[in-house]
Amino acid sequence: MENTKLDLDNYRSLLKEYLLTKNETALYQAEQFSKLSMQHNISPEEIIHVHIEALKELYPDLTQEVNDSLNFLLEAMISYGLAYQEFQTLREKQSELQSEISVAASMQQTLLSTVKPEIKGLDIGAISVPANQMSGDYYHFVTDKEDDTLGIAIADVIGKGIPAALAMSMIKYSMDSFPENQRNPSAILENLNRVVERNVDPSMFITMFYGLYNPGNETFSYASAGHEPGFYYHGDQDEFEEIEARGLVLGATDQATYRQFERKIKKNDCIILLTDGVTECRIGDRFIERDEILQVIKKYIQLPAQEAVEQVYKHFERLQEFQFRDDFTLIIIRKEV
Amino acid sequence: MDFKPCVNIRKEWDIVGARQLGREKAKEIGFGTVDQARIATAISELARNIYLYAGTGKICFEIVDDFEHKGLQIIAVDEGPGIRDISQVMEDGYTTSGGLGAGLPGVKRLMDHFDIISEVGEGTEIRASKWVR
Amino acid sequence: MNINLDVEVVEEDQTITLTLRGEIDAYTAPKLKDALLPLTKKPGAEVIVDLEQINYMDSTGLGVFISALKSTKEYDSELKLIQLQDRVRRLFEITSLDSIITIESTVRGGN
């Protein structure tokens, strides 16, 4: 109230000045006044009240109609004032939530962080970018110092955002708890399927591709749980081949089994793994076809693997006007020798 | 206490009657124009709630004048379905009608003191007071 | 995102046909779920979902069909999807859901 009194004097003199001079300076000061009022949570009806009071002082003979109409205006502004106050509270709440989500997101990043391994003879590139703060995509590398094998998991939880991120963290923990010696792609998927089926909402499911590379015999064994098919790149022919590995998504039934496939990897060939955030790219109403994705990958495949995945990402980021609708994950593994 | 002036709320236009009576009381006690307008708006919200969710009820007024305060208490009473989750109803952004600024959080903002008692299946009593400064 | 989903339900004895029109994504999937799930809870019902006019569906849509399938097992009803567009069919194939959900395999020719 004390404040308003002070402001009333100020407002009165501003109003007086304006009525006399009609100059822009007074209007500019009025703007400053309204900003200051907002900072002090002064609601619009109070400003109108101040205006009425100031006017009455300056023109004591105000007609009844003008007086009444100003009171009418004051009544009409009450709800605006309320809405503004509520808006302020919601804005504060929003920024609280925002910072909570940032904390959760960085926790998730720590939880799911994976070290891109340095493996002799392999050039590995990986990129994963969430559409929102938290990701429902996941990739993970597992190395074994004894036999030099490399395990690669790439997964996509249905949906995105926080629910997807929570489910992903669960997957990560179950994978960590599997015994060390259990590295068979089909067995891993079968175990995970049971975990997902038991623990998540019936409409939630996860797709995953799991591969294991054994440098001893240059063989890549893999199995897929309904994951977007990856590609095998034949370096000598500069051609792509879809990696076929049918398998049911994780979490649909409790007794899914997964067929395991194997193939030899030749020098200069690549394994390309991705999530449907890559294939579900939309430009306006049009979808990007898988062939177009291959053309883009082809353009950059000669680059070092990490540079290649980053360039492909940048390409699609630009195409979608820097607004991805889904999490985007791409891995390229090249056999160098 | 038994002689509190009340307005029955049965149809939408009764809201106007409640506002009018409330404003007269507020003027009598010595509230300024801004506070009169705020009190009237609070009455609207309370009466509208009765009209929308309970069907019928009443809005009563009590003049408060003790050592501590001088002011007006609005008492909104209905025998409607009651409010299951009061915290949720009092939360900003939770409105079933009316949008930003409406509903009970708005009443709480407009007034100096606010209290709800509600039993599911029995009804709701809301008391909201404003003090003359 | 402003594209909607229309759901039309026709019940004939135990056969319930759901005709969908539009897109199934994170925004419209709840609508589909609300319409589809209660129908699968009628023992003996055969729920047929006509997807001819669905030109886009994302994984959220698959999730709805998975939960509907689980529900048919629980309540002893049946679920069948018909007239899938190629793009939608591909989703069921990649995820191998076509191995557990009955999907009419022939695409209707002519009109």
Automatic annotation (TrEMBL), chain A:
It comes from Paraliobacillus quinghaiensis. Pfam families: RsbU_N, SpoIIE. Residues 123-335 form the PPM-type phosphatase domain. PANTHER family: PHOSPHOSERINE PHOSPHATASE RSBU, STAGE II SPORULATION PROTEIN E-RELATED. Keywords: Hydrolase. The gene is rsbU. SUPFAM superfamilies: KaiA/RbsU domain (SSF101215), PP2C-like (SSF81606). It comes from the Bacteria. This is Phosphoserine phosphatase RsbU. InterPro entries: Bact_Sigma-Reg, KaiA/RbsU_helical_domain_sf, PPM-type-like_dom_sf, PPM-type_phosphatase-like_dom, PSer_Pase_RsbU_N. One of its GO terms (molecular function) is phosphatase activity.
From TrEMBL, chain B:
Pfam families: HATPase_c. The keyword Transferase applies. The keyword Transcription does not apply. It comes from the Bacteria. Residues 34-133 form the Histidine kinase/HSP90-like ATPase domain. CDD domains: HATPase_RsbT-like (cd16934). Keywords: Kinase, Transferase. One of its GO terms (molecular function) is kinase activity. Coiled coil: none annotated. InterPro entries: HATPase_C_sf, HATPase_dom. This is Serine/threonine-protein kinase RsbT. It comes from Paraliobacillus quinghaiensis.
UniProtKB/TrEMBL annotation, chain C:
It comes from the Bacteria. The keyword Cell cycle does not apply. Transmembrane segments: none annotated. The keyword Methyltransferase does not apply. Keywords: Phosphoprotein. CDD domains: STAS_anti-anti-sigma_factors. Residues 5-111 form the STAS domain. One of its GO terms (molecular function) is anti-sigma factor antagonist activity. Signal peptide: none annotated. Positive regulator of sigma-B activity. Non-phosphorylated RsbV binds to RsbW, preventing its association with sigma-B. When phosphorylated, releases RsbW, which is then free to complex with and inactivate sigma-B. NCBIfam families: ant_ant_sig (TIGR00377). Belongs to the anti-sigma-factor antagonist family. This is Anti-sigma factor antagonist.
